[in-house]
Amino acid sequence: MKKERLSCEKARNICIIKSLAKLGHFPSRTTEKEAWFLSPLRSETKASFKVSRVINRWYDFGIGKGGNVIDLVCLIKNCEVKEALQFLQEDTISPFHTPPKKQQPKKGKIQIITAEPLDHPALLHYLKSRKIPVEIARLYCSQVWYHRKDKSYYAIGLKNDKEGWELRNKYFKNSSSPKTYSIIRNSSQQLVITEGIFDFLSLSTINADLVQNSDCIILNSLAFLDRVKILIPGYKRVLLYLDNDPAGKKAASSLLSLYDHITDCSDSYGAYVDLNEKLMKLEK
User: For 111-143, how does the pLDDT look when each residue is reduced to its tens digit (9 = 90+)?
Assistant: First the structure.
């Protein structure tokens, strides 16, 4: 009987770790969620090639590239997809990927799987649609894979001050627990406060020097304004970039009434709701 041809969809579920073993590559160390290898794509002495045992994807930190098992075989063997599928089908029993067993999260709760450098085409396209250069996003954000309602997803992620994540993609805006503000410390006596991820990334795009020479707080929600108030006296100058809506104006007014060294910078984008809207209109 003629053997059924292996489809790309089925091949993507073949275990990367076992396929690497077939090619003569074995992990330097293994944890519950990932395995680290000396890169099969280049010469190195310290393992910087990661395979996620949860989502069965690889990422080579040395070249900034990752993907599924088909992509990997094509690169290692310098071949086309057709030849890669033939290689993966050679075994009589294909070693399909089985994620490690873990405690089931509460229904609807977001569980973070892994964080890696931004490289997914859909996320890069989303950044482009918001006029954020990829190289700026990569300075502050990660590509975060997360689990919710028995499915895995990916998003642009910004870590907060309690190790939780703000998560954004074209279809989803949410966060993992615990939720709080994010802070980026540059050992500066000047503090910049923005409201959300894309406000901060937009400011970094418009005025990179300002961001790089300031400590920066991304509130992630105006509800966390009270939490950052105790940090404000520790700076010589504070610059506010909150939204030009009633909630943002009210928050700015409350801070201006408490401290003399705060400047409300919302006039610099006064014709727009927020910094990202200004950036998108300017770049058209």
Answer: 898 898 999 999 999 999 999 999 999 999 999
Structural domains in the chain (count): 3
Q: Are 205 and 132 in contact (CB under 8 A)?
A: yes
14 and 64 fall within a common domain? yes
- How many other CB atoms sit within 10 Å of the CB of residue 90? 9
Mean pLDDT score across all residues of the chain: 90
Residue 157: CB atoms within 10 Å: 26
Those residues whose C-beta lies under 8 Å from the C-beta of residue 206, and which sit 6 or more positions away, are 275, 278, 279
pTM summary value: 0.69
Please choose, from the candidates 211, 173, 202, 219, the residue with its C-alpha nearest in 3D space to the C-alpha of residue 275.
202
Residue 104 domain-assigned (yes or no): no
Q: Is-cis flag, bond preceding 178, omega within 30?
A: yes
Q: Are residues 52 and 135 in the same domain?
A: no
Same-domain status, 80 and 135: no
**Separation of alpha carbons 190 and 209, rounded Å:** 12
Q: Identify whether 3 is part of a domain.
A: no
Please write the tens of the pLDDT for every residue from 205-235.
999 999 999 999 999 999 999 999 999 999 9
CATH number at residue 78: 3.90.580.10
Token output for 169 = 């993609």
Name which residue leads in pLDDT, 94 or 79. Answer: 79
For 116, other C-beta atoms within 10 Å of its C-beta total 18
> Cα–Cα distances in Å, from 30 out to 27, 50, 146?
7, 10, 20
The residue type at 31: T
